[in-house]
Amino acid sequence: MASTLQAIDAFLASGQYRPILSVIKGLRNGAVYGAKVRFPHALVMTFLFKDASLREKFKAIFEATFTHSKNLAAFVFLYKSLTGLLHHLRSEKSQIHSFIAAFIGGYIVFGKYNKVNEQINLYLLSRIIYGLAKLAVKRGYIPKPKGDSFPWFAAIVWGIVLWEFEYEKDTLQPSLQASMTYLYHDSNYWTSLKNFLWHNK
Length: 201
Hints:
Structural class: mainly alpha
Low-confidence stretches: none
Order of helices and strands: HHHHHHHH
Helix content: over 70%
């Protein structure tokens, strides 16, 4: 048994078939990362906001975790496979390869509408908008702000989201609606000390 494990370790360390093995390792890492990220989030959000039986809550948690894990694993597998194929066909790396591979993978995996994919896509959208703004400064397309611009960024984000919540609530994601309702609307109502301090309603 020990010799078999040593032979496997030697094979993996040799670098032979590295592109194929990196795809397999990416598939594994996608599944693990997806589960690690989604399980605690689903656990907290389900028990805070979902009105259902204990069995239904756990079912929702495990379904969300499985979907996130499966989709991230599938995307990493597709992305690494396609970039590897494109590099092989062109005999050189190109920045466009990353975009093409991710575009195809995003369409196939994250283009199927469900709550998990919606949250992941929205999460990435906020990050890339922020990143593109920094890239525009880095490349000199827009001047670097002279002062600290982060307070203005925060002010605009919070101003828009609270206006949208108060007057166009149906346009926001349901989980965000639930969070904001709990924070800003449920805090307007109470009938006793019990639901003022210990319970929401």
